[in-house]
Amino acid sequence: MTSLGDKGELIKISARVNEEEYSFLVDTGATHNFVSKQFVCDNGLQVETGQKVKVKVANGDSVITN
Questions:
Q1: Is 39 domain-assigned?
Q2: pLDDT (tens digit, 0 to 9) for every residue of the chain, 66 residues total?
Q3: Would you say residue 54 lies in a domain?
Q4: Does any domain span residue 64?
Q5: Is the pTM of this model over 0.70?
Q6: CA-CA-CA-CA torsion sign (12, 16, 22, 26)
Q7: C-beta separation of 25 from 10 below 8 A
């Protein structure tokens, strides 16, 4: 686990999806966590769509989620 100060912690976890091992980073100080559309498609996962959200990413850009 890597500390990010008073904003939360960055946690690296390992998990198995469809018999494949993956690593995930979870920012406990973030308001949302995301997974790529490519990862969902590659693994045949089902998602529930919700409201689109405008988020600011690490480089300062704002993006709208799908």
A1: yes
A2: 454 545 678 888 999 999 999 999 888 888 777 888 899 999 999 988 788 889 888 899 999 987
A3: no
A4: no
A5: no
A6: negative
A7: yes
